[in-house]
């Protein structure tokens, strides 16, 4: 089974992709940017504020798939500046206080729409 996941509480896709795809066992989110779903614009502020918006967007997508952060098994984080890593970790840790998922983090040359951070997740569906 393959099901497209959509949440009004997360930003609409900025291209031809789904917010997430759910299978019998997993949900695979697309990368989320620090876009406020109410305005469709990037949140202003530092990496902490932007990370919080990305995590809230992912929380909404996971909820639409019937799961949550406690079932996340893998995250991938893309930065346009790896020097933001420490401040990012401070916010990220609030969402995963225990049983943290596996994670990869990379600095990349550029992110869509000039974003500073993008995060994608894989979570269990049951």
Brief descriptors of the model:
126 residues, alpha+beta, 60s Ribosomal Protein L30, Chain: A, 6-stranded mixed beta sheet, two-stranded antiparallel ribbon, 8 strands, 23% helix
The CATH homologous superfamily is called RutC-like
Q: Tell me the major beta sheet.
A: 6 strands, mixed
Q: Could you state the order of secondary-structure elements as H and E?
A: EEEEEHEHEE
* Secondary structural class: alpha+beta
- Helices, by number, come to 2
- At CATH level 3, the topology is 60s Ribosomal Protein L30, Chain: A
Helical percentage: 10-25%
Number of domains: 1
Question: Strands of the largest sheet, in order across it?
Answer: 1-2-3-8-6-7
- What fraction strand? 25-35%
Distance between the termini: 14 Å
- The whole-angstrom Rg is 14 Å
What would you say the CATH architecture is?
2-Layer Sandwich
Quantity of strands, as a count: 8
- In the predicted model, the low-confidence regions spanning at least 5 consecutive residues are none
CATH class: Alpha Beta
Would you tell me the overall average pLDDT?
A: 96
Shape: globular
């Amino acid at each position: 089974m393959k099901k497209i996941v959509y949440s009004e509480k997360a930003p609409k896709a900025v291209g031809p992709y789904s917010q997430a795809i759910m299978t019998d066992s997993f949900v695979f989110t697309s990368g989320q940017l620090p876009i406020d779903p109410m305005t469709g614009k990037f949140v202003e502020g530092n990496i902490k504020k932007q990370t919080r918006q990305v995590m809230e967007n992912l929380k909404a997508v996971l909820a639409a798939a019937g799961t949550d952060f406690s079932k996340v098994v893998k995250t991938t984080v893309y930065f346009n500046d790896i020097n933001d890593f420490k401040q990012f970790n401070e916010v990220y840790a609030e969402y995963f206080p225990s049983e943290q998922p596996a994670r990869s983090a990379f600095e990349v040359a550029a992110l869509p729409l000039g974003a500073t951070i993008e995060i994608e997740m894989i979570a269990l569906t049951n």
